[in-house]
Amino acid sequence: MDETVDGFDGAPIAHPKLRALHDFWHRCRGEGALPRRSAIPAEQFKPWMGHMMILEPVGETAAALPRFRVRLHGTRLYGYDGKDLTGWFIDDVVGEPGLSCIVAPYAAAVNARAPQYDVIQSPFPGGTVHHLCRLVLPCAEDGHQVDRLLVGMYLHAQPRHDPPPHTVPPDAAAGHGGYA
After folding, report:
1. Distance between CA atoms of 119 and 47, rounded to whole angstroms?
2. Are the C-beta atoms of 24 and 128 separated by less than 8 Å?
3. Does residue 23 sit in helix, strand or coil?
4. In terms of pTM, does the model score above 0.90?
5. Considering the domain 16-157, what is its CATH architecture?
């Protein structure tokens, strides 16, 4: 599958489940610029549900960024940041300097009315994950004004630096342990 995304100017989407989520969002929007969140049955999110957040932009003004309320926080994401964020505003949970990095793609998705993709470092000291692939997909009930963001997040696959499987440690060759 081609990793580039139609109408997406950012880096290629590295995670296959996020590419599939983007393709799903693209099909749901049909001929419109943005899909309506209410037109997407919840059961169709099943392949991604534990790895998704649904955010609501609140209080957007010309002079300030909107705040982002977490409407749904997938259960698999709890381990990434240490807690369930459902009902919380992102800025009540994350402070600077991490807040700017966290909300920048959300604000960009609202303003550009277009998907955003990045790889982020978790700002949560209690989290067990350090790097996540994140895809932000805007939705609009009226087809124009973004009122929900679908956010998919998966572990970023770092290149492994382990020895190749056929490599035998020196002491294994001497019969002192090694690979089973």
Report:
1. 21
2. no
3. helix
4. no
5. 2-Layer Sandwich (3.30)
